[in-house]
Amino acid sequence: SKLTNLGHLEMTWRSRMRFHPLLVRILHKSRLRYYGKPEKKMDMPYQAYFEVADGSGMMSMVLWNSLCPEWYHSMKVGTVLLLDKYTIKTSYPFKTYPTPGDSQMKRFATIEISLNVRDPPTEISIIPEEMVKPEWGLPEVKYRFITRSELDDLPNNHSCDVIGLVTFVGRAERARKREHSEDFWLYRWAHAIDGTSDQPFILELFATSQPDVFEHIHPMTYLVCTQMRVIQDFTENLSRTVYLTTSNESQIFITGWHKGQPYTKDAKVKNFIQWTKSQSEADQIKKTVIGGYYPFPRPPDSFLKY
């Protein structure tokens, strides 16, 4: 069929009502958002957004309402989509943006693709990876993996991806989203090592839209976390703690979920796998811990300092 591309859409969208089909690859995926309110009667008040790209650049794509339970889990990072009967809207100004793995890629930030169940009903097709042709010019998914030895030199709020062997995982804890709010964030702390430093990655993992992964993070699993943010925490005596926290676009993978993921081709991931092959499993198991209360960042060692 006659296709369009994202660059052409941005130039012509105001003058058109009907758009040609789009062929894009998903590069980033947000957590699922529930926006229901008691006074509004909506069947499926869900929303999720994705960053999709073709040879011309990258744009946000929003999946609405009942399309979310139908399509959200099928739309993975790396999935190629053929879209028809979508609509174009001006971008929502307050959304967060992931940091692209390819810093040279052009971002079309003024508009976004909207996928709806009606007016008009969007047609979505997933193209199997073995049928994707090189001449389509779709970009590959790129990552920003770092090692533990590189972490201390990174600035606050820097975006990165990590892989490590889990040595500690804490219990699930809750924090209020806002003061006096009845909504909570669910999170847990984890430590992961990659052999490049004596120190582990300290990871604050909020529950994303992957409960089956979040609940099964155990010691000795290979953990991949994408789109993590660096937090540089300075205490009063200027001692520094560095940890990583999940962002709105973070994806988490554990042993059993890695097969077929685009990051398996990354050089730093391959180096980590080589390092794990040189380790004694029995020795590592002795150093692992699970559960318990983990106060972090650590409180001062006396009440006077507190």
Task: Describe the SSE topology.
Blueprint: H1 6-12, E1 22-29, E2 33-34, E3 46-54, E4 57-64, H2 67-71, E5 80-84, E6 87-90, E7 107-115, E8 123-127, H3 148-151, E9 159-169, E10 173-176, E11 184-193, E12 201-206, H4 211-214, E13 222-234, E14 240-246, E15 252-253, H5 267-277, H6 281-286, E16 289-290
Parallel strand pairs: 4-7, 9-16, 12-14
Antiparallel strand pairs: 1-3, 1-5, 2-3, 3-4, 5-8, 6-7, 9-11, 9-13, 10-11, 11-12, 13-14, 13-15
Pfam families: RADX
Organism: Gymnorhina tibicen (Australian magpie)
Protein name: RADX protein
What is the compact description of this entry?
The protein is mainly beta.
Notes on the protein architecture:
The chain has 306 residues and is mainly beta. It has two domains: 6-136, Beta Barrel (OB fold (Dihydrolipoamide Acetyltransferase, E2P)); 148-305, Beta Barrel (OB fold (Dihydrolipoamide Acetyltransferase, E2P)), CATH 2.40.50.140. Helix content is 12%, strand content 34%. The chain has helices at 6-12, 67-71, 148-151, 211-214, 267-277, 281-286, and strands at residues 22-29, 33-34, 46-54, 57-64, 80-84, 87-90, 107-115, 123-127, 159-169, 173-176, 184-193, 201-206, 222-234, 240-246, 252-253, 289-290. Strands 1, 2, 3, 4, 5, 6, 7 and 8 form an eight-stranded mixed β-sheet that branches. The chain has a five-stranded mixed beta barrel with strand order 9-11-12-14-13. A hairpin with a 5-residue loop joins β13 and β14. The longest helix is centred in the last third of the chain and has 11 residues, at 267-277. The chain is globular, with a radius of gyration of 21 Å.
